[in-house]
Specification:
The protein is an alpha/beta fold. Helices cover about 30% and strands about 15% of the residues.
Length: about 375
């Protein structure tokens, strides 16, 4: 067996309480567990999914994972008086019946809305973590959840929590959204193929474009601007800048277009931008890797994630969070030999594909995540 020698000794029955249906189309955080189900089972990991906290068999397991979004209504709310004690009571009940309870924090950002729950579980899994874990002990409100937002950004009026320094040892990296399903199927909106178990059996069909292919656009950026400046301030700054460059360079911008045309424009672009949204890691990052374009993105140096696709000036070009250096970066890239850009895009695409197709990488990470 090509996995680490100790994996075959593990036998763990894991129940997952989630509101992400395995058969639903779209993206699912647990997709790699579906995709590599056989490899995980061979190495001692068995998964069952539950969508009701009162299911009679929920606690019949070795380890229970509770996805944060299952209880999202208790945390993603402006109701400052909401009582979260039912969530805490559920976790305490689970702990009394099961040896190990895990919080699967599916928050978009490196920050978290549910840090108050860490003390009631054995492990707290997140897609990405602050390099400085002590930041989880400081309540900075919206900036604690989205550390990059500017002063005066649209307030969320959501109640945030912290955790105690004594709980920081529980934090573990799970996996980011680079591991979900990025296959493209024409008419995919009409059938549940995106993350369906059936579709996972045909994972060999994966569309990419060579970084060395002909590209007639400098860049393409499509999207809308939200009134919520926490989400949109980087996007607004970028669209304003690109609109000034569009009279001189071949640039496509504007509102949403259909998926096929959107991907086609990206595949024709030498460089592509992916500002932060509700979180730092965005679906657009991986669409850019697939397209063979060069990813330009606000710097990711404050966090750690798995897989680590973000190697500064190797797989992406970093920008300042306030986008103040974006114009300078664009002008520099215009004069950069295309061979250099192509090589960077190739390194990023190769790294992305390696992790998309390597059961070994994922299973080894999964085992280490639970054993550290």
């Amino acid at each position: 067996m090509w996995f680490n020698y100790y994996l075959s000794q593990i036998e763990l029955k894991i129940h997952i309480l989630t509101n992400q249906k395995s058969w639903a189309r779209g993206f699912n955080d647990f997709f790699p567990l579906f995709k590599w189900e056989k490899a995980l089972k061979i190495n001692g990991f068995d998964f069952y999914y539950f969508y009701n906290q009162n299911h009679s068999n929920l606690f019949n397991c070795d380890q229970l994972w509770v996805e944060y979004r299952y209880f999202n209504s208790y945390f993603d709310t402006t109701d400052q008086t909401i009582d979260i004690s039912p969530v805490i009571s559920f976790l305490q009940k689970a702990k009394s019946k099961i040896g190990s309870v895990v919080l699967f924090d599916s928050s978009d950002s490196t920050g978290s809305q549910c840090l108050v729950l860490t003390q009631y579980v054995d492990l707290h899994l997140k897609k990405q973590l602050y390099k400085d874990l002590n930041l989880y002990t400081i309540n900075n409100g919206d900036k604690g959840f989205m550390c990059w937002i500017p002063e005066g950004a649209t307030p969320s009026n959501i109640k945030y929590y912290t955790t105690d320094v004594s709980q920081l040892h529980k934090f573990r990296l799970s996996w980011n959204i680079g591991m979900v399903d990025y296959r493209y199927f024409p008419l995919s909106g009409y059938y549940p193929i995106g993350t369906a178990i059936l579709g996972s059996n045909y994972y060999n069909k994966f569309r990419t474009r060579s970084p060395f292919s002909y590209r007639d656009l400098l860049t393409s950026y499509r999207g809308s601007i939200s009134k919520d400046t926490r989400y949109s301030f980087q996007r607004a700054a970028l669209l304003s800048l690109l609109s000034r460059f569009s009279s001189t360079y071949n640039i496509k911008t504007g509102s949403f277009i259909n998926k096929s045309d959107y991907l086609s424009e990206m595949q024709r672009s030498r460089i592509s931008f992916s500002p932060f949204g509700w979180g730092e890691v965005c679906y657009r990052d991986f669409e850019i890797f697939q397209s063979g374009s060069v990813l330009i993105k606000p710097t990711m140096e404050h966090l750690t994630t798995f897989p680590n696709f973000y190697l500064k000036n190797e797989t992406y070009i970093p920008l300042k969070w306030d986008m103040s250096d974006a114009e300078q970066i664009i002008l520099k890239l215009i004069d950069t030999p295309k061979e250099e850009l192509e090589q960077m895009a190739k390194q990023a695409q190769d790294l992305f594909l390696e992790n998309q197709f390597s059961a070994e990488n994922f299973v080894n990470h999964f085992a280490k995540m639970l054993q550290e």
